[in-house]
Amino acid sequence: MGDRPQRILPYAVPGRSRRLVPFVPYWVANLALATVIAGAWPVSWLMDNQLDPYFMDLIIRIGVAIILAVSLNLINGITGQFSLGHAGFMGLGAYVCGVLVKHWAVVHGTGLAPPPALLFIGVTVLAGLVAALAGLAIGIPTLRLRGDYLAIATLGFGEIIAIVINQVQAIGGRTVGELKHVGGYEVGGPGGLHDIPIATNFFWTFLWCLVCIVTVWRLAHSARGKAFYAVREDEIAAAAMGVNTTFQKVAAFAIGAFFAGVAGALSATFTGNLAPGSFNFMKSIEIVVMVVLGGSGSISGAILAAIVLTWLPEQLRSLKDWRLVIYALVLIVMMIVRPEGLLGSRELWFTRRRSIAPPPTADPSSEGLN
Questions:
Q1: What DSSP designation does 177 have?
Q2: CA nearest to 218, candidates 18, 20, 30
């Protein structure tokens, strides 16, 4: 019986192993994304002309919150770091975009008219790149730290950005008297930056939300993206297996900072006003709460939490002084009942791949083996 040959199964034959493929083919997903983006343009036109400004403001703020929560989720949830400086990256991107767009409007005498679409795209991307460079600048020396030490370092970086923005009134040019600046780029100083041309609408917000979600999703669930999860689960074991943990952490930090800068640019060109106090420590805490409430590592959970935590305070506004108390109690109850967050580490869509076996072929070596 020991010499009896074993039956060779089709999936065990070399060169004929089973393949893992996504539930939805890539070409179908890409076609669906292109269709959704194309359909968002007429929807945006209708909303800009028909929707009440209050609801439009709420929708834009929800979109900005989604970008912030999903991008921070890449750092805190997927890679397992703990950053408290996300609002600093947002503020940096907001001021870069606001200063450049306002300077362009002043030079060309367009007032508050929206800048050309290509200019707005370029300035938004530039704002994200500046924030990403700042992420590299803080990430390279500090991401060798872990836990509380990393949180303190990123918190300090965010506070440095807020202080610099608060102290600088103009870049370049010269000062006449004490307050009037001639030439250069106006930053605003403690009084903030005002009269920024309005360019952000539903389409641009929706487009950047989609870009952020798809980018983080495909990074996290790609073959290389598994290194992010390896760093989160056990950094020492990941390093022992050959994963460059410092590179993975810096990459996640830079990508998250890029989208935080983009969110700041959208916010600046929607409200038309910027104040240094809008990007302080409490703003970073607000974004961290979105990630924790949604579930660390869950992209769809971060989206849901961003929607809930932006929409809920507006619904409680009629309660005046009790609004923040109820808001805090809801968070406390949620953390007691669901400490892992709304979705934990799960997603609302398929993340696993299905296994497909190749069609059987004639194999002379297997004839007569039963």
A1: T
A2: 30
